[in-house]
Amino acid sequence: MKKTFYTAAFLLLTALLLIYPQECLNFALNGLNLWFQKMVPTLLPFMILSGMMIRMNLTDPLIFVFKPVLKPLFQLKSTMLYVIAVGFLCGFPMGARVTADLYERRQINQHEATYLLAFTNNIGPIYFISFALPLLGFRLNAILLCGMYGIPLGYGLLLRYTFYRRALAEGVKASSRKVKPANMLKALDDSVAAGLEGITKLGGYMILFNLINIIPYLLLSSKQIALGTVSGILEITGGLKELSDSIPIISLILLTFGGFSCFAQTYSLIAKTDLSIRTYIYHKMILTLLASLYYIYFFYTP
After folding, report:
1. Separation of alpha carbons 113 and 130, rounded Å
2. Any idea where the domains of the chain sit in the sequence?
3. Which of 43, 159, 222, 230 has its CA 20 to 30 A from that of 76?
């Protein structure tokens, strides 16, 4: 059944490429431009610098700034606090990237990595403030800030002291396993190579999922809200542009969801590990439900 579905989808997309070459080119170029103009200059430096810090065992000094706040809240070891700080400050997909890097180097275990993936891989504050909010016609305020970042932070705290309490208990007592640090040039070389590989994969996914938008475009071109919603489910930036400020609550919910493109990009970053993409999606769906209830309350409650 799956083979039949995948074959049909492949043939459909190939046919659309041949029948609507100009429209498909425009969608593909949109994904390429977003990747080259937005993701490469803003995300690649973070990937390289974070990779160097992990390889040189320099995460503890950085987290020193955030430790007075995060340590009492989460009661976790420094390497995990580093993921939380980087994930929330740098945004998607750095939460997944740093988690995978630390897990591959055995500085966190599988339970800890799975827990961190559940809530640290969200839309970045730079993207949210400089791109999403102006597009929706909003100014930054406490309600929007809490909805976008307070909910996942609260969800992380809830998981910490309920479902993951026992699994994380030993990690709290134990210090992070210290792998022999690489020298600066070795760390730089490995981090640049890993960063370029990662950013190239992300670009491929952005181009592909923007291209897939040809399908809702052909089916729903006369229905802007439906087109924007479906496009956002596939790839968030294209969907936001299509929705603009028509129904902001849909855009805000989609920002929490992230889109199938973000799921695929996250998978590409954890593919070399045994971390579960299904578990990640499960938690992302819960966060989307919580965000939906939150925004419905503030938008529609008198």
Report:
1. 30
2. 20-300
3. 43
